[in-house]
Amino acid sequence: MHATLLGILGLALLGALHAQDSVPVQSDFQQDKLVGKWYSIGLASNSNWLKEKKHLMKMCTTVISATADGNLEVTSTYPKGDQCEKRNSLYTKTEQPGRFSYTSPRWGSKHDIRVVETNYEEYALVATQISKSTGSSTMVLLYSRTKELSPERLERFTQFSREQGLTDEEILILPRTGESSRRER
């Protein structure tokens, strides 16, 4: 009985690791082309915080810059009430170009970040697997160089998010700051 339970747990862990490894990374990733200003157009996640904060979410700006040692400094500015809040994160490069790691100093969560696809001038699709002591979650972000993207890019974001196991209720197209209407997919 004990061996059977360990076997089942082992298979479950192997399946989770395999699913994480099946998330692609942009081929021929060029980090220098990813730097600059981006807008968060879409957000999808199965985390509890999204369920609680979903109705408050709005488009934010993110500035990505390269550090001297090849990592990425990511600064996001979020609207919070009638003010803006900035969050800085250091994404550490891995051996695989387009894949980064980050550990949240606030929550202690570990983030496996992958630039899934981008054309650098229009959009970037980024998938993150987040692990913490209470469990794991998936997050997909759609970035754009402008505040609007084509319906085809929005649909690709939605399709990819579904492929990661996220439901339509967990997939958001974020309203621009100052817009009162809420668009959800």
From TrEMBL:
<feature type="domain" description="Lipocalin/cytosolic fatty-acid binding">
    <location>
        <begin position="35"/>
        <end position="177"/>
    </location>
</feature>
<dbReference type="GO" id="GO:0031965">
    <property type="term" value="C:nuclear membrane"/>
</dbReference>
<keyword id="KW-0539">Nucleus</keyword>
<keyword id="KW-0276">Fatty acid metabolism</keyword>
<protein>
    <recommendedName>
        <fullName>Prostaglandin-H2 D-isomerase</fullName>
        <ecNumber>5.3.99.2</ecNumber>
    </recommendedName>
</protein>
<dbReference type="GO" id="GO:0005794">
    <property type="term" value="C:Golgi apparatus"/>
</dbReference>
<dbReference type="GO" id="GO:0004667">
    <property type="term" value="F:prostaglandin-D synthase activity"/>
</dbReference>
<keyword id="KW-0644">Prostaglandin metabolism</keyword>
<dbReference type="GO" id="GO:0043303">
    <property type="term" value="P:mast cell degranulation"/>
</dbReference>
<feature type="signal peptide">
    <location>
        <begin position="1"/>
        <end position="19"/>
    </location>
</feature>
<keyword id="KW-0963">Cytoplasm</keyword>
<dbReference type="InterPro" id="IPR012674">
    <property type="entry name" value="Calycin"/>
</dbReference>
<keyword id="KW-0256">Endoplasmic reticulum</keyword>
<keyword id="KW-0443">Lipid metabolism</keyword>
<keyword id="KW-0643">Prostaglandin biosynthesis</keyword>
<comment type="subunit">
    <text>Monomer.</text>
</comment>
<dbReference type="InterPro" id="IPR000566">
    <property type="entry name" value="Lipocln_cytosolic_FA-bd_dom"/>
</dbReference>
<keyword id="KW-0964">Secreted</keyword>
<dbReference type="InterPro" id="IPR022272">
    <property type="entry name" value="Lipocalin_CS"/>
</dbReference>
<dbReference type="GO" id="GO:0048471">
    <property type="term" value="C:perinuclear region of cytoplasm"/>
</dbReference>
<keyword id="KW-0467">Mast cell degranulation</keyword>
<keyword id="KW-1015">Disulfide bond</keyword>
<keyword id="KW-0813">Transport</keyword>
<dbReference type="Pfam" id="PF00061">
    <property type="entry name" value="Lipocalin"/>
</dbReference>
<keyword id="KW-0333">Golgi apparatus</keyword>
<dbReference type="InterPro" id="IPR002345">
    <property type="entry name" value="Lipocalin"/>
</dbReference>
<keyword id="KW-0444">Lipid biosynthesis</keyword>
<keyword id="KW-0413">Isomerase</keyword>
<dbReference type="GO" id="GO:0005791">
    <property type="term" value="C:rough endoplasmic reticulum"/>
</dbReference>
<comment type="similarity">
    <text>Belongs to the calycin superfamily. Lipocalin family.</text>
</comment>
<keyword id="KW-0472">Membrane</keyword>
<dbReference type="GO" id="GO:0036094">
    <property type="term" value="F:small molecule binding"/>
</dbReference>
<keyword id="KW-0325">Glycoprotein</keyword>
<keyword id="KW-0275">Fatty acid biosynthesis</keyword>
<dbReference type="GO" id="GO:0005615">
    <property type="term" value="C:extracellular space"/>
</dbReference>
<keyword id="KW-0732">Signal</keyword>
<dbReference type="GO" id="GO:0001516">
    <property type="term" value="P:prostaglandin biosynthetic process"/>
</dbReference>
